[in-house]
């Protein structure tokens, strides 16, 4: 019997994932990551204790062994430190992508193997398939396109994909909720938020505590260098932002760039938000070893972006130049550009 470690958060998705795999005959254990600094106090650490408690209750209900895996140091090193460093540079990071690569499907996968598991399973809405013709594992969108999470998983490698199960990729969110009811998993835990280590009402406080130097006021200016106002710190602004600028103008103005060297926020009209090309680095390919010629693909520039047709030009082993057929709004350095061929993730990289 194959043994599966299920990453459990006490929520509907990971709980149904564990129940489904148990029904399919796998030997299941539950593993919950502890990632928040234990020396901290307040709402954040209380929420992590709540996650552990809820996951343990679900494991008891399913009759499976539950482990808490302490990944605090690694999470701080690989995710929080990088998150802060990117904001210092005036970029907008996506910590979920980095966590998936280094922590959840990196260290936690190794810990699962140490516990005797053949696979690590998660409640992600994405699909993994093996292509016999190419001998490669494919990452595909989940069937529920509204919940699809393949964008956040584009950095996974072949040696990780072969040991990962994502059974929810074949279901819609409504079907998963129905299964939770049928399995008597009465879960009241709210949907997980995008950044697990920052509460929604404490984003500014977190950034000011960890990156105080990036909270230094500076000029808000237009492309020509004309000063229009003062910002409260570059870490509070991102490309496309309109609200909270505190300046008046004849036409609506948006953040169109962050200039870290001048500690300046650059604003312009909505038309100035649109670009038809970008460069991406740290490219990871999944469906192929690499691109050796330009390819016409669909590209997403953030998780909720409606992917757009583009030509992806490989410029080196891990860099690409992407040219869109139509200009795209608010292309943001630090975010990911992920390219698809139909439902298949070809690869992706970090927008420069």
How is the secondary structure organized here?
Layout: E1 3-7, H1 12-23, E2 27-34, H2 43-62, E3 65-70, H3 72-88, H4 95-114, E4 119-121, E5 126-131, E6 136-141, H5 158-161, E7 164-165, H6 173-182, H7 203-210, E8 218-221, E9 227-231, E10 254-259, E11 264-268, E12 274-285, E13 295-300, E14 308-316, E15 319-329, E16 336-341, E17 344-351
Parallel strand pairs: 1-2, 1-4, 2-3, 4-7, 8-11
Antiparallel strand pairs: 5-6, 8-9, 10-11, 12-15, 12-17, 13-14, 13-16, 14-15, 16-17
Helix pairs in contact: 1-6, 3-4
Overview of this structure, please?
- With 352 residues, this protein is an alpha/beta fold.
- It folds into 3 domains: 3-201, Rossmann fold; 216-268, Adenine nucleotide alpha hydrolases-like domains (SH3 type barrels), CATH 2.30.30.280; 274-351, Elongation Factor Tu (Ef-tu), domain 3, CATH 2.40.30.
- Helix content is 26%, strand content 31%.
- It is built from 7 helices and 17 strands.
- The protein has helices at 12-23, 43-62, 72-88, 95-114, 158-161, 173-182, 203-210, and strands at 3-7, 27-34, 65-70, 119-121, 126-131, 136-141, 164-165, 218-221, 227-231, 254-259, 264-268, 274-285, 295-300, 308-316, 319-329, 336-341, 344-351.
- The strands form 4 sheets. A 6-stranded antiparallel β-barrel has the order 12-15-14-13-16-17. Strands 3-2-1-4-7 form a 5-stranded parallel beta sheet, sandwiched between helices.
- Strand 2 (27-34), helix 2 (43-62) and strand 3 form a beta-alpha-beta unit.
């Amino acid at each position: 019997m194959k043994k599966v470690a299920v990453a459990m958060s006490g929520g509907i998705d990971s709980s149904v994932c564990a129940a489904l795999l148990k029904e399919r005959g796998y030997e299941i254990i539950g593993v919950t990551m502890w990632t928040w600094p234990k020396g901290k106090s307040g709402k954040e650490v209380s929420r992590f204790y709540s996650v552990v408690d809820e996951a343990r209750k679900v494991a008891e209900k399913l009759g499976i062994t539950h482990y808490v895996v302490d990944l605090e140091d690694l999470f701080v090193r690989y995710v929080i430190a990088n998150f802060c460093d990117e904001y210092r540079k005036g970029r907008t990071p996506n910590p979920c992508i980095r966590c998936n690569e280094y922590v959840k499907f990196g260290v936690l996968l190794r810990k699962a193997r140490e516990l005797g598991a053949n696979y690590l399973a998660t409640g992600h809405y994405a699909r993994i398939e093996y292509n016999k013709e190419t001998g490669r594992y494919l990452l595909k969108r989940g069937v529920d396109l509204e919940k699809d999470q393949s964008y956040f998983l584009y950095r996974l490698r072949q040696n990780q994909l072969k040991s990962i199960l994502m059974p929810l990729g074949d279901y819609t969110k409504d079907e998963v909720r129905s299964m939770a009811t049928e399995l008597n998993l009465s879960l009241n835990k709210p949907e997980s938020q995008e950044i697990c280590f920052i509460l929604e009402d404490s984003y500014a406080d977190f950034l000011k505590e960890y990156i105080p130097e990036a909270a230094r006021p500076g000029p808000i200016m237009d492309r020509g260098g004309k000063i229009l106002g003062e910002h409260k710190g570059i870490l509070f602004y991102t490309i496309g932002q309109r609200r909270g600028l505190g300046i008046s103008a004849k036409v609506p103005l948006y953040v169109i760039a962050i200039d870290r060297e001048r500690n300046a926020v650059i604003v312009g009209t909505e038309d100035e938000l649109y670009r038809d090309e970008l460069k991406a680095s740290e490219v990871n390919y999944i469906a192929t070893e690499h691109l050796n010629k330009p390819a016409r693909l669909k590209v997403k520039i953030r998780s909720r972006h409606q992917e757009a047709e583009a030509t992806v030009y490989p410029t080196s082993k891990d860099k690409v130049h992407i040219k869109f057929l139509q200009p795209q709004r608010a292309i943001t350095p630090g975010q990911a550009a992920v390219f698809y061929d139909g439902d298949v993730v070809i690869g992706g990289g970090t927008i420069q």
